[in-house]
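User: I'm putting together a teaching handout on how multi-component assemblies are represented. Below are the sequence lines for each component of a complex, exactly as they appear in our records. Could you produce the 3D structure of the whole assembly as structure tokens, so the students can see both representations side by side? Please keep the chain order the same as the input.
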Amino acid sequence: MTKTKENSKGAMTSARLVESMLELIQARGYSGTGLNTVTEHAQAPKGSLYFHFPEGKEALGERAVALAAERFRALVTEAADGPPAELVGRVVGVLAAMLADSDYQLGCPVSVVALEMGGQSERLREACANAYASWIEPVAAYLAARGHAPGEARTLATAVVSTVEGAMIVSRAQRSVEPMRCAAQALTRLLEA
Amino acid sequence: MTKTKENSKGAMTSARLVESMLELIQARGYSGTGLNTVTEHAQAPKGSLYFHFPEGKEALGERAVALAAERFRALVTEAADGPPAELVGRVVGVLAAMLADSDYQLGCPVSVVALEMGGQSERLREACANAYASWIEPVAAYLAARGHAPGEARTLATAVVSTVEGAMIVSRAQRSVEPMRCAAQALTRLLEA
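Assistant: Of course. Below is the structure of the complete assembly, with chains in the same order as your input.
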């Protein structure tokens, strides 16, 4: 095997480990996810986790939160071109589909890590704070571009992100996308006022 | 010791165990809370946990979620007599003070249990669904009493509960009550429109 192939195989294993950590956190949280389960779920060789993440679970969790942050930011940024009803409808629609398609087994990985680890790991708390900031920022920019004063755009964007996060949890608990529908309706009204 | 005294001592131990479980869940989630830690935190005799909760952790978690549900419902019901700005301000104010006073160590116990255990324990998922329903209901009744059509009152009430839940998580991650302030401002605007 050439050096490049080895490197790319290593990068793929590392990416699979992060992806598995992310999915397992979504399904059962951070504390309830054992590293052996991550390695098995990723179909990665034993020992690969400590090879790629010598700092252990916290470093892997940090990467998983960053990956989730990046994906959701991309979704928000893509959706931020039409009127508020369209932005809200698209973002909430994708998340509601994820909830229903997983039979309400998957939730937002950032919220569960913030709640479990916010008081115990400064590193994970910061990863979560950065994730939220990275979602609030494009929504605030979108609202500012539509004529809201910067401070107000930021206030509304923070409330939008909070509402969507909260609605995902209530939806999951109630095994229904109804709370997502309620959030979309309220946010559309708020942003179009 | 008379029988009554024994009973009341038992009831006090049981209540202390539930209270400790609740606080520990708020601080570090359900999976990360070991039963020995609960017994120690409650300063309860070893073995008392299995005496009072022979079904174990799930039953104790269910009681902790129910206690949190009851307390927050009382807060909402008490605050539901003035105009929307007052209701929102009081509820968000109490929760923001809890976050700041605990140095952002305590969050909402219902959301973390829903996220960690929603896919693994039907009993705990139901306890969380009931908690949310018990908060949505008085807010919907309050809005209906103020002239909103029943369906709309329910939609708005669900969005209010989701927004407050989400804002608590974002606040905790960011170690700032700013997201709570943003939620209060957005909700006031939404409900007074």
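A couple of points students might notice: The mean pLDDT of chain A is 95. The domain at 3-192 of chain A is CATH 1.10.357.10 (Tetracycline Repressor; domain 2).
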